[in-house]
Amino acid sequence: MAADAIVLGAGIIGVSTALQLARRGKSVVLVDRKEPGMETSYGNAGLIQREGVVPYGFPQQFGLILRYALNNRIDAHYHWRALPSVTSFLAKYWWHSNLTRHQLIARAYAPLIEHSISTHNELIQEAGAEALIAKNGWTEVFRTRAKHDGEIREAERLNKEYGVAFKELSPSDIAAQEPNLSSDFVGGLKWEDPWSVKDPLALTRAYVALFEKLGGRVLKGDAKSLSQTGTGWRIVAGDGTVEAKDVVVALGPWSDTVTKPLGYNFLVGVKRGYHMHYGTKGNAKLNGWTMDAERGYFLAPMNQGIRLTTGAEFARRDAPKTPVQVERAEAVARTVFPLGERLDREPWMGARPCTPDMMPVIGKAPRHEGLWFAFGHAHHGLTLGPVTGRVIAEAITGEKTLIDISAYRPERFNA
Predict the structure, then answer these.
(1) Which residue among 67, 153, 205, 367 sits deepest, i.e. has the most Cβ atoms within 10 Å of its Cβ?
(2) Which pTM was predicted?
(3) C-alpha dist (Å) from residue 54 to 101, 181, 252
(4) Cβ contacts of residue 33 below 8 Å, gap of 6+?
């Protein structure tokens, strides 16, 4: 089979990239070992985070680092055995999270976030997926006045510098918005710009359906079978092989299975995360996406039930599940919202691919023609899928890219 482009990885980044290429008239084959959307893109809080201009940094305060070292929190957990293998990543992650460097990174990162809603909206409209979207932002609730005041100050800064809209919430505002939430909170903050996705898997599949409607093909295959030809690239997929001039590596935390054999070494860490769905007791209802800020878990009213999501787990990518954060979060969440029975047989786990400078790798490979990278989106894969796909598609087709993507270039890791 011949095509103009092969996209490796059918998560939201790969699907969006394949779709954006197909919208530009290219013949595209999307290849994954699983059905689209079944890995990291399946499990997240379902937010298109227009407010997320500042990527999640590594704590800088020594006292807070010591508290994390106790390894008893919801928002972070680590495997002792994994520490030697992730020390280099964590050290550089900490270095890049210094206040000055972090603010410079945010300025480079903001243009991607700025176009997150608009690029999603184009695809949502074309895919007929409007029923999957809620457009009422999301809320952080605070247990202490110190946390409340600090986050409000930061929201005011983001509003001034990046135009991010927010609303401060009093306890009575929270009660009006979420009458079934407990009164444990001294106040809240509602981010007004973001959209919420009621079923991230369904949205990914809606994009896949649009891709196929435009002539795209989805095949199962092993990305490790990728090889270079005299005119482009070849991969074993479906019942044969596919050849194309261009190939995009959008394999998330598994991208190294392709990049390393080709001589590229990216320092990409993994933040694993978990979720569980719940029913509710009686007639209780959660109206919107809500984060218990000090405890570090999220409650999201998904189509499958109330989805409880955890923070980050630092572990080897393929290590067995250790969903202790779900247990910790559930115990706390039940004290603030009337969660009912568990609806899943076991907690779901996914692996977020993270670079130490908190920005994705987007662009052309420096030493191979027709090889492109699109991975490392950390917590914002769902948010940045369509805009990443658009700029990669524009670069491949020789168009002027929507934004300058030089800050995300692969050369910052590979000369």
Answers:
(1) 205
(2) 0.96
(3) 11, 28, 21
(4) 220, 221, 222, 223
Provide the b/e sequence for 316-336 (b: ≥16 CB within 10 Å): ebeeeebbbbbebbbebbeeb
Among 22, 6, 37, 19, which residue's Cα sits nearest to residue 381?
Answer: 37
Residue 135 CA from chain centroid, whole number: 19
Q: What angle do CA 29, 273, 224 make, to 5 degrees?
A: 35
Closest C-alpha among 18, 33, 14 to residue 217: 18
Q: What is the DSSP code string of 101-147?
A: HHHHHHHHHHHHHHTHHHHHHHHHHHHT-GGGEE-S-EEEEESSHHH
Token pair 């379902």 is found at: 46
* Cα–Cα distance, 30 to 18 (Å, whole number): 6
- CA of residue 246 relative to chain centroid, distance: 25
Burial tier of 412 (Cβ tally within 10 Å: 0-12, 13-18, 19+): middle
Average pLDDT over residues 93-118: 96
> Is residue 305 within 8 Å of 297, Cβ to Cβ?
no
Question: Considering the chain, what is the average pLDDT of its residues?
Answer: 96
- What HEC string does 334-368 produce? HHHCCEEEECCCCCEEEEEEECCCCCCEEEECCCC
Reading the block at residue 30, the tokens are: 């999307």
Max CA-CA distance within the chain? 67
Q: Report the alpha-carbon distance of residue 107 to residue 111 in Å, rounded.
A: 8
**What percentage of the chain carries pLDDT values higher than 90?**
94
Cβ pair 410, 258 in contact under 8 A = no
415 confidence band (pLDDT: 50, 70, 90) = low
Q: For residues 351 and 160, what is the distance between their CA atoms, to the nearest angstrom?
A: 34
Above pLDDT 70, what percent of the chain? 100
In single-letter form, the type of residue at position 68 comes to Y
Alpha carbon distance 74, 90 (integer Å): 19
Task: Report which of 334, 302, 222 is spatially closest to residue 47, judged by C-alpha positions.
Answer: 302
Q: Cβ distance 268 to 363 under 8 Å? A: no
The CA distances from residue 49 to 15, 111, 137, 318, 399, in Å, are: 19, 13, 9, 28, 27
